Amino acid sequence: VNRVGVVDGHLSNRLTIYGRRGALLETLSSFFSVRRLWRYDDFGREGSLEGSEGLTPSATLRGGWSVGGGASRQFYRFEAAPYEAYQVEVPGPGGTLRVPFGVPRPLTDLFALAARVTTPTFRTFTASVNASYGAEAIFPEAAEGRALRIGGSLDWRPTRQVRVGVQYARLEISRARDRSRFSTEDIPRLKVEYQATRAVFFRFVGQYAARRRDALVDRVGRPILIGDEVAVASDLNEVRADWLLSYRPGPGTLIFLGYGASLAEPRAFAFGRDLERTADGFFGKVSYLFRL
Predict the structure, then answer these.
(1) How many CA atoms lie within 13 A of 214 on its CB side?
(2) Nearest residue to 134 via CA among 176, 177, 106
(3) Model-level pTM greater than 0.85?
(4) Mean pLDDT (whole number) for 222-247
C-alpha cells in the first residue's frame, strides 16, 4: 500500500559463500536489512514511526534443494489520527459513559521467526512449504498480537501441454494479552494452463478467500465503538474465477477472450445455495500486425 507524507529509509546487504562443486552445501547466503520510516514533517526532529531489522539466511543443497529462514525485530508507534473516531464504554456515576479511545504506547521488540523448504525442479513437479510465527501489531485495536503464517505451493506438470499450480496460505492472529483469536484468513488458489495447440492456449485461475475478524476491543477487553457504532465481528467469504482463451494464428496476430466472476457466501467453503454472484467481467483484445 503506497503511503504519502513519509520518509522511508532502508539499508541491506547480502553475503554469499560458495561451496565446492558437488558438495552437500552449494551456496550459503545471508541477507541483512534495516528499515526506518518517519513522518515527512518530523524527519530529523522526532523518532521514527516504525522500523525493523532482519536476518534472512538461505542455503542451496546438493540436488537443488533449498532451505531458508529468517529472524526479525519490528517496532511501531501508533498515531492518534486514525483512532479519532474510536470510543469505549466505561462505568460512570450515572450509568455507562463513552470516552475517547486512548492510543497506547509504542510497541517495541516484536520478534518473529520464519522457515522455508523448496524441492528441486523435478521433471513433473516443484513444491515449497513455509511457516512463520512471531509478535505483530494489531492496528485495528492498536494492540500487540501473535501471528502464525503457514503456506505451501505445488507446481505440477503432468504433460508437456498441461501445467497446474496449487497454492494455500493461512494466517492466524491472536491477542497477546489473553491469546484470544483476533482474525483468521484462509486462501487456497488454483491455476490450470493448457496449451492445446501451438496457437491455442487456455488458462483458469480460481481463488477462495475466507476471512474472519473478531469484534474490536481495547487493551482491557472493552468493546470499541467507531462513529457511535460497535465494531462487531465480520466474516467475508469470496470466490473468484477467471477464464482466458488466447489464439495466436501467426506472428503479430493475437486474440484474447476472458471472463471473470466474483461470488460470496455467508459460510466458509459451503458452496451451497447461498453462494451469490457479486460481480462479472468480460475481457477482449485483438492485435494485428500490418505489414507494408
Answers:
(1) 18
(2) 176
(3) yes
(4) 94
